[in-house]
Amino acid sequence: MVKCSYSMRLFIIFTNCMVRTLDLFMFVRYNYAVVKGDELIALGAYEIQVSSLIVHIVYIESHPDSNPTISKVGRKYRGIGRLLIAYGIKLSVDHGFGGDVVLEAKTTELANHYINDFGAVKLPSFSGAPRLLIADDAAKRIFFSYLE
After folding, report:
1. Burial 48-69 (b: 16+ CB within 10 A, else e)
2. Which tens digits make up the pLDDT trace of 91-123?
3. CA nearest 99: which of 115, 118, 81, 113?
4. Within its chain, how far is the Cα of 86 from the centroid?
5. CATH number of 2-144
6. Which is it for the CA torsion 91, 94, 99, 102, positive or negative?
7. 0.85 exceeded by pTM
8. Domain range annotation of the chain
9. Tell me: the pLDDT tens digits for 15-59?
């Protein structure tokens, strides 16, 4: 486990591990947590899918007080979901995939949030959950918003 400081005095904790499944597919999984003081603000899990040349955002969860689909007014935190997606984009860039990420939205309302606010596009869904791609200019806008 490694701690790195982030602006706004958040601490980012991340780990990674290699996983082999049936010796056919190899992927690297990264876990990511954002903590402020003693409060857990966000969690994320990411898979580097080398055979697909993409990062799959397996799981992202932000503090309920930051979720715009739950807390319509007076959110305690802003931009946490965007930060979790930006980390997936960073992993994609670092692995030579051009910033492309795929994720499944938990609800239709969240899918619409990703489409309208992050520029995601719908993909065919395998599990019933809305499957989305963030790539190209949409990924660049998110990624560059964290560069200074």
Report:
1. bbeeeebbbbbbbbbbeebbee
2. 999 999 999 999 999 889 899 999 999 999 999
3. 118
4. 6
5. 3.40.630.30
6. negative
7. no
8. 2-144
9. 444 433 333 344 567 777 778 888 888 888 899 988 889 999 998
